[in-house]
Design brief:
Blueprint (H helix, E strand, L loop, with lengths): L1 H36 L30 H33 L5 H15 L3 H12 L10 E3 L2 E4 L2 E4 L1 E3 L2 H16 L2 H21 L1 E3 L2 E3 L2 E3 L2 E3 L1 H27 L3 H9 L4 H31 L11 H13 L2 H31 L1
Antiparallel strand pairs: 1-2, 2-3, 3-8, 4-5, 6-7
Helix pairs in contact: 2-7, 2-10, 3-7, 4-7, 5-6, 7-9, 8-9, 9-11, 10-11
Length: 357
């Protein structure tokens, strides 16, 4: 009887698999047939054609004569920039608010709880519109800019001091510093030394270009356009509310006796949290944290709502409208987000395995 039941389950699963394969084949055949009837040539040859449009923010050179393939790279890099900065800010804010949720100070706990309840219950798109239309677009023009410590803020964007000459070395130093914190102790010293060397070299090569308000514009400095500032702020603040709850739950999962034992050894509250409680809480924090990082990366596609030139806006928007290559463009766009999600999940799964080891 057991063998008969096993055989029946096998044939049922095989039949379902065959049905799914047949349905997929029919969909592909139908799509291919319909595409053949359209006055559009299927393929990726359009990527080598000139785009004919410009982009407001680019990390690589781009103009009207650049190709659609280069436009794809511009959008991809802008998406990666938003995701990386958004994840970093959301992590810092989220961990800070999560720890504050359990602080002994009642006022601090109330403020942290209010933050979580407010931003978790607001739609992300509404929050994005608030920062863009309600805050940044209402700022004064350059003549009445807000200036503080070399930072200028107006309706043209946020202007920061620009470390010209050694910017890439600064990024390398930050990357090595992050590696030093993530790697095991025997490799940590090498990454730390590399970070120190890169930072010293950057300081030696760098000269700071300060922004300066001049009439109707701002000269010098590093400009962050309003669309970028609004998008990063909305993503970071919104995601941080969820990360804060994850951190709070992770900390509460650690037995109270751990903190009491740390206090008995003479550690302060912050030292106990840093060296005793948080390392144990990370075992439960990292898996759900992965989902929040993935959500932030995918939610960055809302940039199209405020015309920030990310991958969806440039490639799945402008490029699609001009070329009509809908299947290829959407397939490439979905492939990028799938790859980013899988890469982020793999990295955090590796970190989770390392924490549990």
């Amino acid at each position: 009887m057991e063998e008969t039941g096993r055989a029946a389950r096998f044939w049922i699963q095989a039949a379902l698999l065959a049905a799914v394969a047949a349905l997929a084949g029919w969909l592909v055949f139908t799509a291919w047939t319909n595409i053949g009837r359209l006055p559009v040539h299927f393929g990726l040859g359009f990527l080598s054609e000139p785009a004919g449009f410009s982009v407001l923010q680019t990390l690589i050179p781009f103009d009207e004569k650049s190709t659609y393939g280069r436009a794809f790279m511009v959008g991809l890099l802008n998406t990666l920039l938003v995701a990386a900065i958004g994840i970093a800010l959301a992590t810092v804010i989220g961990f800070s608010v999560g720890v504050a949720r359990l602080a002994p100070n009642r006022l601090l706990r109330a403020v942290a709880a209010g933050y979580v309840e407010l931003f978790r219950n607001l739609p992300l798109l509404l929050l994005l519109f608030f920062f863009y239309f309600g805050v940044l677009r209402q700022l004064p023009p350059p003549r009445q800019s807000f200036e503080l410590g070399g930072v200028i803020l107006n309706n043209r964007g946020l202007f920061l001091p620009d470390p010209a000459g050694g910017g890439w070395l600064v990024l390398a130093a930050l990357a090595l510093l992050a590696a030093a914190l993530a790697l095991k102790s025997r490799w940590r010293i090498f990454a730390g030394v590399g970070a120190a060397v890169a930072l010293v070299s950057a300081l030696a090569m760098t000269h700071i270009v300060w922004p300066e308000a001049r009439g109707l514009s701002v000269s010098g400095g590093l400009r962050l356009i309003p669309e970028f500032v609004a998008l990063v702020a909305a993503l970071a603040i919104y995601t941080a509310a969820y990360i804060a709850e994850i951190v709070r739950a992770g900390i509460q999962s650690v037995a109270r006796g751990q903190g009491q034992a740390a206090a008995a050894l003479g550690l302060t509250g912050l030292q106990a949290m840093r060296f005793v409680v948080l390392p144990q809480a990370l075992r439960l924090v990292v898996p759900p944290l992965t989902s929040q990082y993935l959500n932030l990366t995918k939610n960055s596609s809302l940039a199209v709502a405020i015309a920030y030139p990310d991958l969806v806006s440039i490639f799945a928007g402008t490029t699609l409208a001009q070329t009509g290559q809908a299947v290829e463009i959407m397939a490439l766009t979905m492939g990028v987000y799938l790859t980013l999600s899988l890469a982020t999940a793999a990295l955090l799964n590796w970190q989770n395995a390392r924490v549990r080891a």
